[in-house]
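Researcher: Structure for this, please.
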Amino acid sequence: QVQVVESGGGPVQAGDSLRLSCTVSGRTINTYHMGWFRQAPGKEREFVVAASRAGMTYYADADSVKGRFSISRDDAKNTVYLQMNNLQPEDTAVYSCAASSTNGVYYIRRAYFYAYWGQGTQVTVSS
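Model: Predicted structure, token format:
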């Protein structure tokens, strides 16, 4: 059974950095495409960034996180990371990690692409 567990969230100040971790159990992480999503209060869940099995990175079409957020993976630890720099109050959200074993990456930015989800971790950025 595949389990996805995020950690590393918490309260920070605007301009701070934070690194979220996502550990996958059940299969080795390099067999999955891994994505990060977030959901702010009163808003729909939105795609943040993903890393394909082949090591390609896919950002959201909007420029809200490009240049500030990055994704990386440590296959030895079966963990993927979301590095968030220069955090702003609008980044406040529950951040969720997801795994997909789907072939192809056409829908990698869509939530339905992912079969396995973590419970989410809260990130709160104050000004």
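Researcher: Any notable elements?
Model: The mean pLDDT is 95. Residues 69 and 84 are 4 Å apart (CA to CA).
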